[in-house]
Design a protein that fits this description.
Elements: H1 12-22, H2 29-49, H3 62-70, H4 86-92, E1 98-102, E2 107-111, H5 116-121, E3 133-144, E4 171-183, H6 195-214
Antiparallel strand pairs: 1-2, 3-4
């Protein structure tokens, strides 16, 4: 998705211990795995608290909330970036799109869901860094027909047509071209770590290195 959490350890004592351990082993998988699990839990916390590194995420617009509620289905949510929870699960694990790679000296996790980056960074018109989204194409509608085959009109307003329900067998399907429009998305960064969290990760490596050296 084009983003990364990079933790730099600048604790002199911890760095000294890690350097001594590195002379003994090239396998840092244990602390890397523990640090990765901790980092994913922190990202999960960001989704729960709807919080970026500097400020809360921008609230959902009334239009977005109205659209969600009209199409409300079991398991859907009004929480920001969690309409279905697909994005969150793909980042922290347990969902499709999750990426997790373990090396001898690094641990990576993230998501390959294509819209993740647009939410992480936002678009320029909304204070983000990515280009705004241009939307165009066709929209297909189904209008109900009368028994005689004419377009059915609403009883309360004869100038409006009646949309066909899925169960309707007598309908006319028509396609209309949509005028291109530009949409902006506010940045809602979820992939980040606080200074306190980075300090905790430094502690994970320090504790592991200390135990390794004590076992010699």
């Amino acid at each position: 998705m084009g983003g990364a959490i990079i933790v730099s350890i600048d604790d002199t004592q911890v760095l000294s211990m890690l350097e001594r351990v590195r002379n003994l082993t090239k396998d840092f998988k244990e602390p890397l795995r523990n640090a990765g699990i901790y980092a994913m839990r922190q990202v999960d916390k960001h989704f729960q608290e709807e919080m970026g590194p500097d400020e809360p995420w921008e609230e959902l617009s009334d239009i977005t909330l109205d659209r969600r509620r009209k199409g409300k289905k079991k398991g859907r949510s009004d929480k920001i970036l969690q309409d279905t929870g697909t994005l969150k699960r793909s980042v922290i694990g347990g969902g499709s799109g999750h990426i997790e790679r373990m090396g001898l000296m690094q641990f990576e996790f993230g998501t390959n869901i294509e819209y993740a980056g647009i939410h992480q960074y936002g678009t320029v018109s909304r204070g983000g860094t990515l280009p705004d989204i241009k939307i165009s194409g066709n929209i297909t509608v189904r209008h109900a027909l009368t028994k005689s085959g004419t377009l059915k009109k609403q009883k309360s307003n004869k100038n409006l047509l009646v949309f066909a329900k899925r169960s309707n067998k007598n309908f006319l399907e028509r396609s209309f071209a949509m005028k291109e429009r530009t949409v902006g998305i506010p940045p809602r960064p979820f992939l980040w770590l606080s200074a306190e969290a980075q300090e905790h990760i430094t502690g994970i490596f320090g504790t592991w290195a200390k135990h390794k050296l004590e076992d010699l």
